[in-house]
Q: What sequence folds into this?
């Protein structure tokens, strides 16, 4: 009887090992730099109508968000909330502006809205003025010892649409940000970057339908997924010029690197 129990326990242990190994094989993970890659970003069946592996590109161990404009650096991926963050690390002049709405149009809304901080704006009137608030306490473009920049905040850039531009208010600089939680009212505890949701429900027949409509909600990221030939795999930086089709933006295109 003792031998039978011993054999049974061994079989259970072997079954457990096979179960763990099988799960590991069916949940593959890779890394690009320090960012873990897993489904849905690993290679998918070619029959999938919108393969999300087209959404990202790893070059020289740096991860990028692919768009029809070029490559935007990704700072993190959250597989729990199903969002990735397109990084923004410094105050930028209006000549380098790409709207967060243009990046995210066509994707589901992220858990918390993408926001925009605008600095030293000489104009305050705008057709969408009801969505713009003061945030004069921020020291985000100068040393904390200096007098704070005047600051405006657009809490939900999605309400303004992709055609809004900081030059509309004659601002000297801007930052793309998002709040960690909805409880933060002062915008001093924000994170830098723009969050893009990849939480696409199974019941959506074809998210690419928006890219087939004349005025559909098809941003530069979704366009790259739905029309792979329109992806531009060049890294965007801060000099040169590029027309987004919405407003004029400035970038530098270095040579491709692997």
A:
């Amino acid at each position: 009887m003792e031998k039978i129990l011993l054999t049974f326990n061994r079989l259970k242990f072997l079954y457990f090992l096979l179960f763990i190994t099988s799960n590991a094989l069916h949940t593959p993970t890779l890394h690009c730099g320090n960012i873990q890659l897993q489904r849905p970003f690993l290679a998918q069946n070619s029959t999938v109508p919108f393969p999300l592996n087209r959404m990202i590109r790893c070059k020289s161990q740096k991860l990028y968000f692919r768009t029809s404009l070029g490559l935007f650096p990704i700072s993190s991926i959250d597989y729990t909330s199903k969002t990735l963050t397109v990084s923004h690390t410094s105050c930028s002049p209006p000549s380098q502006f790409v709207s967060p709405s243009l990046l995210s149009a066509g994707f589901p809304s992220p858990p918390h809205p993408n926001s925009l901080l605008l600095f030293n704006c000489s104009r305050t009137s705008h057709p969408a003025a009801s969505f713009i608030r003061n945030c004069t306490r921020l020291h985000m473009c100068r040393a904390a010892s200096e007098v704070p920049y005047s600051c405006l905040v657009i809490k939900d850039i999605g309400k303004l649409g992709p055609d809004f531009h900081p030059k509309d208010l004659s601002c000297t600089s801007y930052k793309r940000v998002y709040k960690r939680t909805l409880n933060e009212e002062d915008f001093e505890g924000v994170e830098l970057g723009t969050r893009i949701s990849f939480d696409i429900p199974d019941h959506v027949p074809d998210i690419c339908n928006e890219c087939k409509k004349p005025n559909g909600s098809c941003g530069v990221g979704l366009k790259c997924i739905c029309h792979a030939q329109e992806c531009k795999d060049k890294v965007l930086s801060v000099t040169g010029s590029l027309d987004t089709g919405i407003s004029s933006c400035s970038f530098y295109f270095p040579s491709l690197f692997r």
